[in-house]
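Re: Re: token formats

Sure, here are both.
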Amino acid sequence: MNQEVLIHTVDCRKCIEKVSHMPTDTGSPIRKDVCIYTDPQGTVMNVGRDDRHEKFSVQSSSADTDTHPILTSDEIWSGVGLRNPKILLLSQILPPMIGGSGRYFWEIVRRMPRDRIMVISDLVEGAVEFDATHMVPTIRMPMTFHETGTVSRRGLANYVSIARRVRDECIRHNIEYLWCGRCVPEGWIGWLVNQLSGLPYFVSAHGEEVTIPESGSTSGVMTSRQHRWMARRVFANAVGVIANSENTRHIIRNSWNVPDERIHRVTPGVETDVFVPAPVCETTRATLGWVNRTVLLTVGRLQKRKGHDLMIEALNRVREKIPNVLYAIIGDGPERERLTELVGKLKLNNCVRFYGECDFHSLVRAYQQSDLFVLPNRQIGAEIEGFGMVLLEAQSCGKPVIAGASGGTSETMGLFTTGFIVDCTNLTTLADATTMLLSDEALRQKMGLAAREWVIRNFEWSSRVNQVDGLVSDLHDKSVP
């Protein structure tokens, strides 16, 4: 028989609802401002943290007044067995913020043992509500940087202030390693914490933010001399660097002189039990506006390096063989206006559809009901596609893929068996590869089956968790005399 659980809210400090089961990590039936779950005796059993409050309120079911005992944060974490985690992930980008690196971190940390992980991230809109749905110990603090360099007094003061707060949390929670989400700005905070306290840190690298631009380029994080100066010190002092691809490992080794033994490749994964193949559903396709259309799908932020414009420009050549083709674009970003103008200029309004940002379930359905996935990426200055998680998601749904010959995209697929890498700046090559797959259903099905097997065999998230856990354990073992 399920034990009755009382749910309490920080805001009104009264019991607001009763349920007969504990909420799960993937969601809960509770109100967004709920923070503490107790059993009928008032014992803390589960926590959804709102770090804007320094203390939390708990009420026993037998209480008949509005006066509640107060627990400190330490008492709450120790009450649910979350004391003294060893790793603190510091990442400005984390859900509910949209971003591939944020999803990468979240999929790993939410699967890690809760006595091994803690998170500090930006206090963004929707963060409190999101944090009420999971059990990962999370602290939210403002991490907005008006200047990510350190030359100005304002920029340096901002870094030092955050570094001191992070250092204090690391001491308070007995953190042994700081995991920095990027070399700048999180890695620089890690470097400062290391200078202040000696705490070792390792840093993640995703590709585009560590690529040193060619002379004269104005695109990319490392166009800034300040950022390059900071990054050199971050990498030099880090006990390890986690690269999201072999391509990124190459950049870290050759551009930043980090020795191989300190670079660890941990690629993104995919939820193969969520991104699953599905039969054609005419109702879903009708909802999407895909009736009697052969659908080419791209998912990703509308940035120039993603190459949406290249696919749009190649579309008229594809239409010669596939007259009912529809190019469906999911995502939003700074290129939206320019891409819309390009569609109008090429008179492709009936062949291209922008869907903006979609909710998660709609995204999965779009993958499932599309015919072919394409990420026509190219390098723009120092900006590259570090890996391409969307390529894994499409393959997990049983779709063959086409991607550009830039960055780490080739590592996402079985070349010629689950997908193709092409020079997307050559519109003829891009159009011909697309046409070949769209016109051969048997080949698409064969490659789609291989794609599904490929990601199950190579890209389960659980193996990534083991890699990170093993990395930290090895670092700890080596540090013990």
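Second one below.
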Amino acid sequence: MKIRYKQTEKGLKEVAKVYTAGEHNIDRTKVDEKAVSVIRRLTDGGFETFLVGGAVRDLMLGLIPKDFDVVTEASPRQVHQIFRNSRIIGRRFKIVHVVYKDKIIEVSTFRSLKDHEDGNDNRFGTIEEDAKRRDFSINSFYYNPLNEELLDFNDAYKDFKQKKIRSLIPLGRTFIEDPVRMIRALKAYVITGFSLSFFMKSAIKRYSSELGRVSTSRLTEELNKILCTGHSGEIIRELYRYKLLVYILPCISLHAKEVRLYDTLREYDAHVLEEKAKGEKKSVLDLYVPLFSSFIVLPDKDLTYQEKKADVVRQIKILLSPNTPSNASLEHSAITFLSDNDIKPVKRKKNRNKKKADAGGGALNATSGGVGERTKSDCEKGGASEADAALSPPGAEIGKMSGFNGSAGCGLEKTGSQTGNIRKKKKKPYYYRKRGSYAGKEKNEEVS
């Protein structure tokens, strides 16, 4: 173990313990290469950069993290300048999303502790200040995959060995500042198997109503994360036990005691863990089906497939309220549910043997001077056919006026007046005309 020091006015001060690869036992190969690439480029740019949060905790447990969060001393603008495939998001605290084809790496800047106490989250600070602002001790490790060193600023390694979850912020303040921390505490409790103190359990029950003021977008994000853990059934059971589920899924909480809900989630979780073992990622479109599949009422058989799908989407929205999944997720979930119940769209057979309406075309050509009845040989001879001879005087006059020259069919093919092949020459727009050119000609003509 090494010690990290910081120079102060009173001299050197110990700020963190540094554990080497042989001590923390993190498997470097489980770290996503895109996250390593982001850390390497920021480090090469002169900025201290680490992996942080639940990803490091999962690596220490031997698990494969779902997401990799990166923290750096570079400002969001500096990060954005290094990565062209990035975008700056957030209002309360700006972060950067480095976007790849199949993954998004979230990069945040060290946050200031002093400004946080004043209620300002838009100021940046040092890594020591950022470590003090983490929610729980087991989520406050900083890991550098380049040199494989693990930094511990809060004596969190001791908590990790004792398998306990400790809040770094006083319990009377932490859940009021960010009520989502209550969800994260229970999620960490289920995933890691670590213990919660009596005081933390009491605080979660006491401040559970604070979850009612969290935005629907954040609740949806946390619900998606829960469904991707492979332990969603156990987490939802604990959320119900601590009276938090009523604020996340109020309709589902009415049925939270039913065994069929947890049976469905157990099968789903087993499938998620299988995919994780294979290195596959669960699609967001497939997340919600196990939550509502036990409670959806099948639509009436007399309805069309589109009407059935619309009815299922309506029921899903009610069951998942106040969460706001994307319309694509809702439609995909409805289609999956209908397919599981052997309800599929009826495929229409294409009629390839359509008859061509030739009779109407022949009659139309006869009225225009018998053009449709003439043959190629007649045109080559240049003579008039019987159809031309049978033309009425008005018809013949029309033929002469249109340039048929006594041969209606050949005249039509040559001039193209009936087929619309002759294009009228369009005048150029006024901004293409030379200034004064047309006006001058008109004046000259008038004078002459």
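The radius of gyration is 37 Å. The longest helix spans residues 259-278.
- S.
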